[in-house]
Amino acid sequence: MSLLNQAKFLLDITRTRGIVRRYFVVNGFDGALTMLGLIMGFLVSTPADLSMIIGVCLGAAIALSISGISSAYISESAERKHALGQLERAMMSDLQHSAHGIATRWVPLLIALVNGLAPLVISLLILSPLWLATAGVNLPIPPLYAAIFVALLLTFLLGVFLGRISGVTWLRSGIQALLVAVITASLIYLLVGN
């Protein structure tokens, strides 16, 4: 069985696929809004060097990632051990070496990686226009505006993803997520920019 199929099997027997999707969207959304907030803050404040902006945003992205990995691992380990204990008591058997026992050890790690990598990957995508600009690539719009555009686009796509999962109209779900990002950017502009 391939590694991917093994991961799917462990998620299926623990019924945690929904949890993985939820963590991906929630922490991906956190990453997108955090980067949007930081970039908007730099945009409306005293002009700063792009390398400094990248450093600050990258630091926040790494912190979000570590926080996501550690918090999800700790909480999911506790939940999986609790669920295994209940199953062992119901079956009056030691299941440590069964598929459920293996899942108890590996599923928290899978969930933690998804929870931690989602905000990191989304943040790196949002920062990509800033890296391109510092590398000398001419962008059609200024790099901070390009990064904001990428953040809004990714937020919309996360909404579309949620819409497809929940079975509601993908466009409506995407626009709802986009509205949250636009309201966030507007609040920062109004409150920090004056």
Can you characterise this structure?
Helix 2 (17-44) packs parallel to helix 4, helix 2 runs parallel beside helix 6 (170-192) and helix 4 runs antiparallel to helix 5. The longest helix is centred in the middle third of the chain and has 42 residues, at 50-91. It contains six helices and no strands. It has one domain. It has 194 residues and is an all-alpha fold. The model has no long low-confidence stretch (mean pLDDT 90). It is elongated, with a radius of gyration of 20 Å.
Rounded mean pLDDT score: 90
- So what's the oligomer here? single chain
Q: What is the count of DSSP helices, taking H or I runs of 4+ residues?
A: 6
Which structural class should the secondary elements be placed in? mainly alpha
Low-confidence stretches: none
The total of beta strands comes to 0
Task: Briefly summarize what is shown.
With 194 residues, the chain is mainly α. It has 6 helices and no strands.
What are the salient characteristics of this protein?
mainly alpha, elongated, membrane, transmembrane, transmembrane helix, TIGR00267 family protein
What is the fold's blueprint, element by element?
Blueprint lengths: L2 H11 L3 H28 L5 H42 L7 H36 L8 H24 L3 H23 L2
Helix pairs in contact: 1-4, 2-3, 2-4, 2-5, 2-6, 3-4, 4-5, 5-6
